[in-house]
């Protein structure tokens, strides 16, 4: 069975010891209340809620799935009550605007909560997750009236939100959408068209569902420049803010999917539904990216969350399952066999999971803090700097974390042997649930194109410097520390490979964008490995300092020993992959592009 | 939707042009009839049967699954009739003994058929697959009476077979089994115990089910040396060979699995069931490996079969799906968008699949021919040589092909984007079906241990020479050919890495078996990549010769151009992974073993 308890020790280590939450976030305007004490309490309560309420419904939710009947979607047993408790506990509005009833806590805290939710019940997490995306878009781009009409109920969770982008013939290429919006003359629009793959598009957990819909106005320019964003409620909202009659939007069917079965994935038919323009006409694409960028980081956290549960479950099983003997001779001669954790290959699987998870968590929270700094720092230059880092790291976190989430859940399943393939053990569900994260919110290949095609060149490479400079500074500062040499040297080598390939892509890509495209995925992965190496080197430095007697935040000496051992595994066993990636990048596009289309 | 047509061109290329089927197999004693004409006919008919009969029931089989009610297992709709047609067509006994009604064709042909079956309906293929394993064990180890009693019906397929090994508390470590066999005094035994994960343990497609069961006699030595093999029919067989009363074996339940849902996976309860010893007492482990080794190669073919379907489906989709524009500017300005095959990253996914699949097919059939040579060659030294190669390559084929099967089906699914995650499209089923192959018949970590722990050192490294020598000879023979230089040089480099790490493992492993264990998985993958590089270099040589005018077996110039382009992709984009594997191997066991158990 799946074993999970929230990794509070590691979360605290990353927030407080590694990333200086107190100095960087607690002091920002608006976060005066968000002291370490409050944060600790929130995380502990969140952990309890996820462990005790979300996790028990994860397996049954997968088995039951959502049921579609007569236009209505029934979520699995217990989900409605669970969602109510979630909203009543204030979890929905944790980091949303206090102007409309949210708690206004740092986004960093939301990242932590998102990890815990995804570890325990990803399908459930989809419902509030989509609402958050919609709230962000309305907060940033909605009129005051729209904010007042929708946000309080959405932030509470009484109403949920969706993002209606994809159509049957287009996903990545939204310039092709056919959904149209015709002016009613009174400022409202008639929205008509079909949207597919709409998560939380229809369900039985909320009073109302607020759809944010991409559509084209009659005078729209061709392609993605002609897209506008509309808000379309399932039920009309009356003058007094209460729920009125049904609008012209209905669920046509739900998808039968590989995983996240308790999350409803809907075909939504808009038939002259009344909708309201959000912001300017034809500016929908940019607004869509507001939702999308937050959602991409969220999806990255899905990978990490599932991977953490897979790791904990596999580690527990490997300590319990007796099978065979250690290659070094029986370790438990009193027992019929040794636990399988004695085997190097099992340890390799577990350490791979642990090293990716803890490295990713550090990287995620580093970026999460940048999200807060970008929003709240009084100094505009600091805000810009932080925003640059978030923009740069978003495709990396989305793509690498979800690829690792899939790899790691599969490693966890492998540790369980045949039992891993059996549904009741819960491990294969993690794999199926993890798989979608590599696809939605921009398939991972698209993330890689975003990185090389947009982020690399933006403002003459300014975004890149937000990563390269601190890594370079860290290397220079620590390269003569003998305790750190085994980590700093391979970090420097990885960084040098990353810089060489960056230069190569920049030069080649200018002449021929296909060269950049051909390098994109390998480059993203090389970037991610380097970023994890940076995080691991920084963690080691903190752990060594604490082992050597400096201030500790409650971690045991064993915690720091494990950090050191895991770091060594990362640098010796995982980081070497960067050499193959580097070699593949430098071959250029010919091996991909020379093959004739007909030969495939 | 899934697209598949049997890759007959490539199969013929590998059999005839690359591997000289006529010279090496058609001439062997017993295969006088198995001319190229006959082989072509059999493969073409097999392809038709798989495409037209097996494939149409693959999706419905997955949706319906097997149903267990009152001790009876119902296979999905159409499976019973399909199985009847399969047996009537003579497909079951294709390469089984003609002494008992089989067609006695080369095992090479069975490998080809297995690929086609796994491409079109893996779940269905499990039923005859298990029967084959049981037939092999009875042919080699059964008494004449046992052979006469069981084999004719099993070879026809009227009766099916199973392999009953695993118990709830033991899978890998069969020394722990608790199922016991008590002598009845008349030469028969009472078998009592519970077996789990028994594929085809119970179903409605055959008159009788013949279980091959591992159990312990009362006087059995401890551990794996005390295991005996028994044959236990579901229905007793009467003197006249007809089916008699029910034996004391029954299905207790079936598993709910991630995939291969139309294959019944049973808990089998033996309650004083009558059984008969196969061969000597306490010699069951070795006999089990007779079944197991054949089964391991079969399972490797499952990976390849599913991967081929994934590749063909993804390639077809990538040519059809219009989305976005080429980075080099619109390729089809008349259409709303370009097909996604214009994108480098989509091509990278497709070429990865194609390069692994075609390389694996060549490697598989090379080893398949060695299976035939090991059985039929008049020269004992040649037989031994071939048997060595099979023994060496079995864990590599099982582990690498199934890992690639999983990776490749996932790449195929990724090409489909969101549609890949939806059940009705069929791509996610390939992924779920492929996942089990990494686990059963010895999880892939066990294969790696088999390679480094048993095969490497066997007879002073004699097995290794069966691979190293021909590769070395190929390199020496072709290193001065300017057309081959771009392939031979990286092959030589990969071989050198493989040889260095072999030496390192041999030396370190002697002192400390955990060192070998810590290197095992990375070493197996390095070995597999080198073997694929050897196959690709050989294929290129043949294709170049044919392009330059030598005899061709019907392939078009485009076929050979595609071989060359795919080979270049393999050498430039995939083989570089070997550097990271090599570096990881050479770090030794410390990064895996230094971590304390409690720290996981």
TrEMBL record, chains A, B:
Q: Which GO terms describe its molecular function?
A: flavin adenine dinucleotide binding; oxidoreductase activity, acting on the CH-CH group of donors
- Top-level class of the enzyme under EC nomenclature: oxidoreductase
Q: What range(s) does the Acyl-CoA dehydrogenase/oxidase C-terminal domain occupy?
A: 283-451
Source organism, top-level taxon: Bacteria
Q: Which residues form the signal peptide?
A: none
- Domain spans labelled Acyl-CoA oxidase/dehydrogenase middle: 163-272
* Keyword Oxidoreductase found: yes
Q: What is the purpose of this protein?
A: Involved in the assimilation of dimethylsulphoniopropionate (DMSP), an important compound in the fixation of carbon in marine phytoplankton, by mediating the conversion of 3-(methylthio)propanoyl-CoA (MMPA-CoA) to 3-(methylthio)acryloyl-CoA (MTA-CoA).
Cofactor(s) recorded for this entry are: FAD
As recorded in UniProt, coiled-coil segments are: none
Q: Which keywords has UniProt assigned to this entry?
A: FAD, Flavoprotein, Oxidoreductase
Can you tell me which family this protein belongs to? Belongs to the acyl-CoA dehydrogenase family.
Q: What is its EC number?
A: 1.3.99.41
Query: What range(s) does the Acyl-CoA dehydrogenase/oxidase N-terminal domain occupy?
Result: 44-157
Kindly state which reaction or reactions the protein catalyses: 3-(methylsulfanyl)propanoyl-CoA + oxidized [electron-transfer flavoprotein] + H(+) = 3-(methylsulfanyl)acryloyl-CoA + reduced [electron-transfer flavoprotein]
Q: Which InterPro entries match?
A: Acyl-CoA_dh-like_C_dom, Acyl-CoA_Oxase/DH_mid-dom, Acyl-CoA_Oxase/DH_mid-dom_sf, AcylCo_DH-like_C, AcylCo_DH/oxidase_C, AcylCoA_DH/ox_N, AcylCoA_DH/ox_N_sf, AcylCoA_DH/oxidase_NM_dom_sf
In which organism is this protein found?
A: Pelagibius litoralis
What name is this protein filed under?
3-methylmercaptopropionyl-CoA dehydrogenase
């Amino acid at each position: 069975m799946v074993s999970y308890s929230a990794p509070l020790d590691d979360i605290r280590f990353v927030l407080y010891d590694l990333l200086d939450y107190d100095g960087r976030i607690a002091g920002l305007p608006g976060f005066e209340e968000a002291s370490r004490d409050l944060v600790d309490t929130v995380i502990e309560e969140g952990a309890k809620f996820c462990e005790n309420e979300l996790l028990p419904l994860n397996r049954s939710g997968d088995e039951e799935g959502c049921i579609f009947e007569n236009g209505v979607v029934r979520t699995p047993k217990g989900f409605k009550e669970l969602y109510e408790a979630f909203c009543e506990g204030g979890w929905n509005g944790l980091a949303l605007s206090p102007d409309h009833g949210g708690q206004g806590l740092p986004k960093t805290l939301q990242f932590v909560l998102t990890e815990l939710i995804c570890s325990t019940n990803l399908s459930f997490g989809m419902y509030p997750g989509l609402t958050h995306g919609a709230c962000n878009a309305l907060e940033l781009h909605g009129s005051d009236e729209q904010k007042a009409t929708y946000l309080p109920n959405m932030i509470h969770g009484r109403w949920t939100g969706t993002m209606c982008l994809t159509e049957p013939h287009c996903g990545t290429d939204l310039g092709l959408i056919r959904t149209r919006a015709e002016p009613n003359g009174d400022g409202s629009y008639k929205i008509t068209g079909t949207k597919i793959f709409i998560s939380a598009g229809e369900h039985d957990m909320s009073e109302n569902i607020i759809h944010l819909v991409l559509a084209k106005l009659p005078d729209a320019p061709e392609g993605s420049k002609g897209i506008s964003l509309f808000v379309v409620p399932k039920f009309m909202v009356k003058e007094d803010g209460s729920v009125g009659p049904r609008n012209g939007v209905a669920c046509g069917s739900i998808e039968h999917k590989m995983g996240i079965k308790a999350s409803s994935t809907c075909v939504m038919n808009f038939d002259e539904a009344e909708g309201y323009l959000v912001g300017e006409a034809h500016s929908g694409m940019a607004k869509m990216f507001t939702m999308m960028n937050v959602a991409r980081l969220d999806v990255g956290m899905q990978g990490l969350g599932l991977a953490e549960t897979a790791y904990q479950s596999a580690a527990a099983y490997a300590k319990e399952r007796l099978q065979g003997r250690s290659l070094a001779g029986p370790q438990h001669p009193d027992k019929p066999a040794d636990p399988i954790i004695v085997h190097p290959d099992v340890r390799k699987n577990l350490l791979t999971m642990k090293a990716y998870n803890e490295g990713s968590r550090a990287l995620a929270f580093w970026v999460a803090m940048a999200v807060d700094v970008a929003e709240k720092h009084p100094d505009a230059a600091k805000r810009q700097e932080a925003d640059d880092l978030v923009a740069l790291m978003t495709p990396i976190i989305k793509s690498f974390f979800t690829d690792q989430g899939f790899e790691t859940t599969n490693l966890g399943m492998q540790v369980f042997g045949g039992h891993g393939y059996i549904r009741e053990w819960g491990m294969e569900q993690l794999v199926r649930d993890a798989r979608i994260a590599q696809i939605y919110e921009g398939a991972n290949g698209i993330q890689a194109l975003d990185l090389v095609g947009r982020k690399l060149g933006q403002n003459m490479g300014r975004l890149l410097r937000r990563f390269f400079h601190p890594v370079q500074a860290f290397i220079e500062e620590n390269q003569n520390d003998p305790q750190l040499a085994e980590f700093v040297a391979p970090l420097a080598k990885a960084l040098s490979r990353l810089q060489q390939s960056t230069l190569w892509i920049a030069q080649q890509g200018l002449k021929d964008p296909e060269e950049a495209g051909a390098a994109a995925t390998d480059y993203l992965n090389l970037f991610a490995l380097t970023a994890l190496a940076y995080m691991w080197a920084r963690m080691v430095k903190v752990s060594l300092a604490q082992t050597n007697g400096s201030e500790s935040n409650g971690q045991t000496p064993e915690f720091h020993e494990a950090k050191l051992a895991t770091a060594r595994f990362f640098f010796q066993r995982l980081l070497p992959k960067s050499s193959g990636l580097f070699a593949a990048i430098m071959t250029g596009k010919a091996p991909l592009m020379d093959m004739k289309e007909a030969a495939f």
